[in-house]
Design goal:
Length: 190
C-alpha cells in the first residue's frame, strides 16, 4: 500500500475529453453542473472554479487577474480553496462545499466526490522539504473531514471514510478508514 507509483488505467490526470484550451467557455464551465443537481451552492462554486480555469487559459492578463480574484474571494468568503491550477476531471461533485482545501498541484480523475472539510495536499518536513502531493484516480469518494497528504495515490473508485487520515496509497476500489487510514476492504468491480 506504500508506493505512490501509478501506471496504466490507474494513472491520474489522464485524458478525460477536451482540455480547457480546446473547450468552449460553456462546455468547460458546465461540466460539473448535471451531477450536482440539488446542490445549488456546489454548482455555483464549481462554475466559478471552472470559469477561472477557462479565463486563465484564454483570457490573457485580464483572465489571470480574474483567476486570482476568484481564488482570493472563494477562499475568503466561501472557505473553499479549489485553485485553478489543480487538474480535476469532469463531473466533480461537492457535497457541502465548506472548508475544502486542495493543493494547486493535485491531480484528480473524473467523477470524484469531495465532502466538507476535506484536505488534499502536501506534507512539509521539518527541514522544509516537501513530500509531494496526493493524487486521486477516477470515481474516488472522500468522506467528510478526511485528509489525504503526501506523495500518495488513491486508486480508481476507492472510498475514504469520514475523518480518515490517508498517508499511504490506497488501491483501486479500496475502502480506507481511520487515523492513520487502513484499507479494510477491496470492493468488487462495478
Ligand atoms: C468509509 C465508508 C465509505 C465505508 O462505507 P461502507 O462501504 O458502507 O462500509 P461499512 O459501513 O461496511 O464499513 C466497513 C468498516 O469500516 C468501519 N467504518 C466505516 N466508516 C468509518 C469511518 N469513517 N471511520 C472509522 N471506521 C469506519 C465500519 O465500522 C466497518 O467496520 P467493521 O467491519 O469492523 O464493522 C463510509 O463509512 C464513510 O465514512 N463514508 C463517508 C460518509 C460521510 O462523510 N458522510 C458525510 C455526510 S454530510
Amino acid at each position: 500500500m506504500r508506493s505512490a507509483q501509478v501506471t496504466g488505467d490507474d494513472a491520474p490526470g489522464r485524458a478525460h475529453g477536451p482540455s480547457v484550451q480546446e473547450s468552449s467557455l460553456w462546455a468547460w464551465t458546465t461540466q460539473d453542473w448535471a451531477v450536482n443537481a440539488g446542490y445549488t451552492d456546489s454548482r455555483l462554486v464549481l462554475l466559478w472554479y471552472r470559469s477561472a480555469q477557462w479565463a486563465i487559459a484564454h483570457g490573457g492578463f485580464p483572465g489571470r487577474v480574474y483567476g486570482a480574484v476568484y481564488r482570493l474571494l472563494c477562499s475568503l468568503f466561501i472557505g473553499v480553496e479549489l485553485p485553478p491550477e489543480a487538474v480535476i476531471g469532469p463531473r466533480l461533485r461537492l457535497f457541502h462545499p465548506h472548508a475544502i482545501v486542495v493543493n494547486p498541484a493535485v491531480r484528480m480523475g473524473a467523477d470524484c466526490v469531495l465532502r466538507q472539510n476535506v484536505t488534499i495536499g502536501n506534507v512539509t518536513r521539518r527541514d522544509g522539504t516537501e513530500k509531494g502531493v496526493a493524487s486521486l484516480g477516477d470515481g474516488v469518494e472522500l468522506g467528510a473531514g478526511c485528509v489525504v497528504v503526501g506523495d500518495v495515490h488513491v486508486g480508481d473508485h476507492a472510498r475514504i471514510g469520514a475523518l480518515a487520515l490517508v498517508l499511504e496509497s490506497v488501491p483501486a476500489r479500496g475502502v480506507a478508514v481511520g487515523n492513520p487510514a487502513r484499507v479494510v476492504r477491496i470492493d468488487a468491480g462495478r
